[in-house]
Amino acid sequence: MIAVLKQGTTPQQTQYLVNWLKNMGMDVHISEGKEVTILGLIGDTSRVDIELLNSLEIVSTVKRISEPFKQANRKFHPKDTVVEIGNVRIGGGHFAMIAGPCSVESLEQIIEVATAVKKSGADILRGGAFKPRTSPYAFQGLKDEGIRLLLEAKKATGLPIITEIMNIRNLDLFEEVDIIQVGARNMQNFDLLQELGKTKKPILLKRGLANTLQELLMSAEYIMSEGNENIILCERGIRTYETYTRNTLDLSAVPVLHELTHLPVVVDPSHATGRATLVPSMAAAAAAAGADGIMVEVHNNPACALCDGAQSLTPEQFDKVNRHVRQIREVLL
After folding, report:
1. I want to staple 308 with a disulfide (CB 3.0 to 4.6 A). Which of 102, 151, 280, 329 is the partner?
2. For the chain, what is the mean pLDDT?
3. pLDDT greater than 90 at residue 72
Protein backbone atom coordinates (compact mmCIF):
# COMPACT_ATOMS: atom_id res chain seq x y z
CA MET A 1 0.00 0.00 0.00
CA ILE A 2 1.19 3.54 -0.71
CA ALA A 3 -0.04 6.87 0.63
CA VAL A 4 0.71 9.96 -1.43
CA LEU A 5 0.95 13.08 0.71
CA LYS A 6 -0.22 16.50 -0.42
CA GLN A 7 2.18 19.26 -1.37
CA GLY A 8 2.97 21.48 1.57
CA THR A 9 2.91 18.67 4.13
CA THR A 10 5.43 19.56 6.82
CA PRO A 11 8.12 17.17 8.08
CA GLN A 12 6.40 17.18 11.48
CA GLN A 13 3.06 16.13 9.95
CA THR A 14 4.79 13.42 7.94
CA GLN A 15 6.58 12.06 10.99
CA TYR A 16 3.37 12.07 13.03
CA LEU A 17 1.65 9.97 10.35
CA VAL A 18 4.65 7.64 10.06
CA ASN A 19 4.64 7.07 13.83
CA TRP A 20 0.90 6.36 13.76
CA LEU A 21 1.35 3.77 11.01
CA LYS A 22 4.30 2.15 12.78
CA ASN A 23 2.20 1.81 15.93
CA MET A 24 -0.13 -0.36 13.85
CA GLY A 25 2.78 -2.70 13.06
CA MET A 26 3.65 -1.25 9.66
CA ASP A 27 7.13 -0.73 8.30
CA VAL A 28 7.10 2.60 6.49
CA HIS A 29 9.38 3.53 3.60
CA ILE A 30 9.53 7.28 2.84
CA SER A 31 10.19 8.38 -0.75
CA GLU A 32 10.58 12.15 -1.06
CA GLY A 33 10.26 13.66 -4.53
CA LYS A 34 10.41 17.25 -5.70
CA GLU A 35 6.63 17.63 -5.62
CA VAL A 36 5.21 14.85 -3.45
CA THR A 37 6.16 12.49 -0.68
CA ILE A 38 5.12 8.84 -0.88
CA LEU A 39 4.82 6.57 2.12
CA GLY A 40 5.19 2.89 1.33
CA LEU A 41 3.51 0.62 3.84
CA ILE A 42 4.95 -2.85 4.33
CA GLY A 43 3.31 -5.49 6.47
CA ASP A 44 -0.26 -6.61 7.13
CA THR A 45 -1.99 -3.65 5.51
CA SER A 46 -5.41 -5.18 6.18
CA ARG A 47 -5.05 -3.59 9.61
CA VAL A 48 -5.07 -0.12 8.03
CA ASP A 49 -8.44 1.60 7.53
CA ILE A 50 -8.02 2.94 3.98
CA GLU A 51 -11.01 5.28 4.26
CA LEU A 52 -9.67 6.78 7.47
CA LEU A 53 -6.18 7.16 6.02
CA ASN A 54 -7.57 8.71 2.84
CA SER A 55 -9.64 11.20 4.85
CA LEU A 56 -6.61 12.71 6.57
CA GLU A 57 -5.94 16.33 5.62
CA ILE A 58 -2.36 15.70 4.47
CA VAL A 59 -3.13 12.58 2.39
CA SER A 60 -3.81 12.98 -1.33
CA THR A 61 -4.44 9.37 -2.35
CA VAL A 62 -4.08 5.84 -1.00
CA LYS A 63 -3.46 2.89 -3.31
CA ARG A 64 -2.92 -0.81 -2.83
CA ILE A 65 -0.02 -2.36 -4.72
CA SER A 66 -1.31 -5.50 -6.36
CA GLU A 67 2.12 -6.85 -7.39
CA PRO A 68 3.79 -9.14 -4.83
CA PHE A 69 7.04 -7.17 -4.97
CA LYS A 70 6.71 -4.03 -2.88
CA GLN A 71 10.03 -2.36 -2.13
CA ALA A 72 11.33 -3.04 -5.64
CA ASN A 73 8.15 -1.57 -7.14
CA ARG A 74 8.33 1.76 -8.98
CA LYS A 75 4.93 2.68 -7.52
CA PHE A 76 6.56 2.39 -4.12
CA HIS A 77 9.68 4.35 -5.17
CA PRO A 78 9.03 6.45 -8.33
CA LYS A 79 12.53 7.94 -8.47
CA ASP A 80 15.28 5.83 -10.07
CA THR A 81 17.69 4.24 -7.65
CA VAL A 82 21.32 5.14 -8.32
CA VAL A 83 23.82 2.57 -7.06
CA GLU A 84 27.19 4.12 -6.21
CA ILE A 85 30.45 2.17 -6.30
CA GLY A 86 33.18 4.64 -5.41
CA ASN A 87 33.10 7.24 -8.19
CA VAL A 88 31.01 4.99 -10.46
CA ARG A 89 27.24 5.36 -10.60
CA ILE A 90 24.70 3.05 -12.19
CA GLY A 91 21.07 4.02 -12.79
CA GLY A 92 19.16 7.28 -12.97
CA GLY A 93 20.86 8.26 -16.23
CA HIS A 94 24.29 7.01 -15.15
CA PHE A 95 25.84 4.25 -17.27
CA ALA A 96 28.69 1.80 -16.60
CA MET A 97 30.74 -0.61 -18.69
CA ILE A 98 31.76 -3.75 -16.80
CA ALA A 99 34.46 -5.87 -18.41
CA GLY A 100 36.92 -8.63 -17.61
CA PRO A 101 37.55 -12.35 -17.94
CA CYS A 102 35.02 -15.04 -17.16
CA SER A 103 37.56 -16.54 -14.78
CA VAL A 104 40.63 -15.21 -13.00
CA GLU A 105 43.47 -17.50 -14.10
CA SER A 106 46.68 -15.82 -12.95
CA LEU A 107 48.03 -12.51 -11.69
CA GLU A 108 49.57 -11.71 -15.08
CA GLN A 109 46.33 -12.44 -16.91
CA ILE A 110 44.03 -10.36 -14.68
CA ILE A 111 46.45 -7.41 -14.52
CA GLU A 112 46.86 -7.41 -18.31
CA VAL A 113 43.12 -7.55 -18.95
CA ALA A 114 42.33 -4.99 -16.25
CA THR A 115 44.89 -2.54 -17.62
CA ALA A 116 43.56 -2.97 -21.16
CA VAL A 117 39.87 -2.54 -20.36
CA LYS A 118 40.54 0.49 -18.16
CA LYS A 119 42.49 2.10 -21.01
CA SER A 120 39.48 1.49 -23.27
CA GLY A 121 37.08 3.11 -20.81
CA ALA A 122 35.71 0.32 -18.61
CA ASP A 123 34.29 1.49 -15.30
CA ILE A 124 34.31 -1.80 -13.37
CA LEU A 125 36.44 -4.96 -13.58
CA ARG A 126 34.67 -8.32 -13.56
CA GLY A 127 36.31 -11.66 -12.96
CA GLY A 128 35.20 -15.03 -11.65
CA ALA A 129 36.91 -16.45 -8.57
CA PHE A 130 34.25 -19.05 -7.70
CA LYS A 131 32.86 -20.61 -10.88
CA PRO A 132 29.56 -22.52 -10.99
CA ARG A 133 30.07 -25.08 -13.75
CA THR A 134 27.67 -27.64 -15.17
CA SER A 135 30.38 -30.31 -15.11
CA PRO A 136 32.15 -31.16 -11.82
CA TYR A 137 35.30 -31.81 -13.88
CA ALA A 138 35.43 -28.34 -15.43
CA PHE A 139 37.63 -25.55 -14.02
CA GLN A 140 35.98 -24.33 -10.81
CA GLY A 141 37.95 -21.13 -10.37
CA LEU A 142 40.81 -20.15 -8.08
CA LYS A 143 38.36 -19.37 -5.25
CA ASP A 144 39.90 -17.26 -2.42
CA GLU A 145 43.14 -16.94 -4.41
CA GLY A 146 41.09 -15.55 -7.29
CA ILE A 147 39.66 -12.84 -5.05
CA ARG A 148 43.17 -11.96 -3.87
CA LEU A 149 44.30 -11.57 -7.49
CA LEU A 150 41.26 -9.39 -8.28
CA LEU A 151 42.21 -7.14 -5.39
CA GLU A 152 45.74 -6.91 -6.79
CA ALA A 153 44.26 -5.83 -10.13
CA LYS A 154 42.17 -3.26 -8.31
CA LYS A 155 45.30 -1.85 -6.67
CA ALA A 156 47.09 -1.73 -10.00
CA THR A 157 44.29 -0.03 -11.96
CA GLY A 158 41.95 1.61 -9.47
CA LEU A 159 38.96 -0.19 -11.02
CA PRO A 160 36.28 -1.40 -8.60
CA ILE A 161 35.72 -5.15 -8.84
CA ILE A 162 32.74 -7.47 -9.14
CA THR A 163 32.80 -11.22 -8.63
CA GLU A 164 30.28 -13.97 -7.99
CA ILE A 165 29.43 -15.55 -4.66
CA MET A 166 28.16 -19.13 -4.57
CA ASN A 167 27.87 -19.96 -0.88
CA ILE A 168 27.01 -18.06 2.30
CA ARG A 169 30.05 -19.66 3.96
CA ASN A 170 32.34 -17.60 1.73
CA LEU A 171 30.80 -14.21 2.51
CA ASP A 172 33.73 -13.13 4.71
CA LEU A 173 36.04 -13.43 1.68
CA PHE A 174 34.03 -10.70 -0.11
CA GLU A 175 34.68 -7.98 2.45
CA GLU A 176 36.85 -5.94 0.06
CA VAL A 177 34.88 -6.82 -3.09
CA ASP A 178 32.99 -3.77 -4.38
CA ILE A 179 30.00 -5.54 -5.97
CA ILE A 180 28.84 -9.05 -5.13
CA GLN A 181 27.31 -10.91 -8.06
CA VAL A 182 24.54 -13.45 -7.60
CA GLY A 183 24.61 -15.75 -10.62
CA ALA A 184 21.67 -17.15 -12.56
CA ARG A 185 21.84 -20.49 -10.73
CA ASN A 186 21.54 -18.77 -7.35
CA MET A 187 18.81 -16.27 -8.21
CA GLN A 188 16.37 -18.17 -5.99
CA ASN A 189 18.83 -19.18 -3.27
CA PHE A 190 16.75 -17.32 -0.72
CA ASP A 191 19.01 -18.00 2.27
CA LEU A 192 21.91 -16.45 0.36
CA LEU A 193 19.80 -13.48 -0.76
CA GLN A 194 18.68 -12.73 2.79
CA GLU A 195 22.26 -12.81 4.08
CA LEU A 196 23.33 -10.42 1.32
CA GLY A 197 20.43 -8.20 2.34
CA LYS A 198 22.06 -7.75 5.73
CA THR A 199 25.12 -6.21 4.07
CA LYS A 200 25.24 -2.75 2.54
CA LYS A 201 27.25 -3.86 -0.47
CA PRO A 202 25.92 -3.39 -3.98
CA ILE A 203 24.50 -6.66 -5.30
CA LEU A 204 24.27 -7.53 -9.00
CA LEU A 205 21.40 -9.99 -9.31
CA LYS A 206 21.27 -12.05 -12.50
CA ARG A 207 18.04 -13.38 -13.93
CA GLY A 208 17.73 -17.16 -13.73
CA LEU A 209 17.91 -19.46 -16.74
CA ALA A 210 14.14 -19.92 -16.90
CA ASN A 211 12.74 -17.28 -14.58
CA THR A 212 10.12 -14.62 -15.19
CA LEU A 213 10.75 -10.95 -14.56
CA GLN A 214 8.38 -11.07 -11.60
CA GLU A 215 10.44 -13.88 -10.08
CA LEU A 216 13.58 -11.80 -10.60
CA LEU A 217 11.96 -8.88 -8.79
CA MET A 218 10.79 -11.13 -5.97
CA SER A 219 14.41 -12.25 -5.52
CA ALA A 220 15.43 -8.60 -5.34
CA GLU A 221 12.67 -8.18 -2.75
CA TYR A 222 14.33 -10.83 -0.58
CA ILE A 223 17.49 -8.73 -0.47
CA MET A 224 15.63 -5.46 0.08
CA SER A 225 13.48 -6.94 2.85
CA GLU A 226 16.65 -7.26 4.94
CA GLY A 227 17.60 -3.60 4.43
CA ASN A 228 19.92 -3.57 1.41
CA GLU A 229 18.56 -1.43 -1.45
CA ASN A 230 21.81 -1.35 -3.45
CA ILE A 231 20.67 -3.80 -6.12
CA ILE A 232 21.48 -3.94 -9.83
CA LEU A 233 19.37 -6.27 -11.96
CA CYS A 234 21.02 -8.15 -14.82
CA GLU A 235 19.40 -9.61 -17.93
CA ARG A 236 21.69 -12.40 -19.18
CA GLY A 237 19.43 -14.40 -21.45
CA ILE A 238 16.93 -17.15 -20.74
CA ARG A 239 16.68 -20.75 -21.94
CA THR A 240 14.35 -21.34 -24.88
CA TYR A 241 14.08 -23.95 -27.64
CA GLU A 242 16.68 -22.04 -29.71
CA THR A 243 20.09 -23.75 -29.68
CA TYR A 244 22.06 -21.53 -32.05
CA THR A 245 22.89 -19.18 -29.20
CA ARG A 246 23.79 -20.17 -25.66
CA ASN A 247 20.63 -18.49 -24.37
CA THR A 248 18.01 -16.15 -25.80
CA LEU A 249 18.68 -12.52 -24.92
CA ASP A 250 15.43 -10.91 -23.79
CA LEU A 251 16.06 -7.23 -24.52
CA SER A 252 12.42 -6.41 -23.88
CA ALA A 253 13.28 -7.06 -20.22
CA VAL A 254 15.09 -3.71 -20.09
CA PRO A 255 12.13 -1.38 -20.77
CA VAL A 256 9.73 -3.69 -18.95
CA LEU A 257 11.88 -3.68 -15.81
CA HIS A 258 12.25 0.09 -16.04
CA GLU A 259 8.45 0.30 -15.98
CA LEU A 260 8.10 -2.08 -13.06
CA THR A 261 11.01 -1.10 -10.82
CA HIS A 262 13.26 1.76 -9.82
CA LEU A 263 16.31 -0.51 -9.71
CA PRO A 264 19.00 -0.15 -12.43
CA VAL A 265 19.20 -2.77 -15.17
CA VAL A 266 22.35 -3.99 -16.94
CA VAL A 267 22.69 -6.51 -19.76
CA ASP A 268 25.23 -9.33 -20.19
CA PRO A 269 25.40 -10.18 -23.93
CA SER A 270 28.33 -12.56 -23.43
CA HIS A 271 26.41 -15.19 -21.45
CA ALA A 272 23.27 -14.52 -23.44
CA THR A 273 24.75 -15.34 -26.83
CA GLY A 274 27.77 -17.50 -25.99
CA ARG A 275 29.48 -16.23 -29.14
CA ALA A 276 31.98 -13.37 -29.30
CA THR A 277 30.87 -12.41 -32.81
CA LEU A 278 27.36 -11.63 -31.53
CA VAL A 279 28.42 -9.61 -28.49
CA PRO A 280 29.06 -6.25 -30.27
CA SER A 281 25.63 -6.07 -31.89
CA MET A 282 23.80 -7.22 -28.76
CA ALA A 283 25.74 -4.77 -26.58
CA ALA A 284 24.74 -1.98 -28.97
CA ALA A 285 21.12 -3.14 -28.94
CA ALA A 286 21.10 -3.26 -25.13
CA ALA A 287 22.38 0.32 -24.98
CA ALA A 288 19.70 1.38 -27.46
CA ALA A 289 17.06 -0.37 -25.33
CA GLY A 290 18.02 1.85 -22.40
CA ALA A 291 20.20 -0.42 -20.29
CA ASP A 292 22.01 1.25 -17.39
CA GLY A 293 25.15 -0.76 -18.09
CA ILE A 294 26.72 -3.52 -20.15
CA MET A 295 28.77 -6.42 -18.77
CA VAL A 296 31.01 -8.27 -21.21
CA GLU A 297 33.72 -10.88 -20.94
CA VAL A 298 37.20 -9.88 -22.12
CA HIS A 299 40.23 -12.17 -22.24
CA ASN A 300 43.75 -11.43 -23.44
CA ASN A 301 43.88 -14.82 -25.20
CA PRO A 302 40.34 -16.23 -25.64
CA ALA A 303 41.57 -19.35 -27.49
CA CYS A 304 43.44 -20.44 -24.36
CA ALA A 305 40.88 -19.32 -21.78
CA LEU A 306 40.08 -21.85 -19.05
CA CYS A 307 36.42 -20.85 -19.15
CA ASP A 308 34.05 -19.51 -21.84
CA GLY A 309 36.68 -18.43 -24.33
CA ALA A 310 34.20 -18.67 -27.20
CA GLN A 311 32.16 -15.75 -25.86
CA SER A 312 35.08 -13.58 -24.76
CA LEU A 313 36.20 -10.47 -26.62
CA THR A 314 39.85 -9.54 -27.06
CA PRO A 315 40.90 -6.20 -25.54
CA GLU A 316 40.98 -4.73 -29.06
CA GLN A 317 37.42 -5.89 -29.75
CA PHE A 318 36.25 -4.52 -26.42
CA ASP A 319 37.74 -1.14 -27.27
CA LYS A 320 35.55 -0.96 -30.39
CA VAL A 321 32.46 -2.19 -28.54
CA ASN A 322 32.91 0.35 -25.77
CA ARG A 323 33.29 3.25 -28.20
CA HIS A 324 30.23 2.16 -30.16
CA VAL A 325 28.09 1.76 -27.05
CA ARG A 326 29.16 5.18 -25.76
CA GLN A 327 28.19 6.75 -29.10
CA ILE A 328 24.73 5.19 -28.86
CA ARG A 329 24.37 6.49 -25.33
CA GLU A 330 25.22 10.00 -26.49
CA VAL A 331 22.51 9.84 -29.15
CA LEU A 332 19.94 8.66 -26.62
CA LEU A 333 20.80 11.46 -24.21
Report:
1. 102
2. 94
3. yes
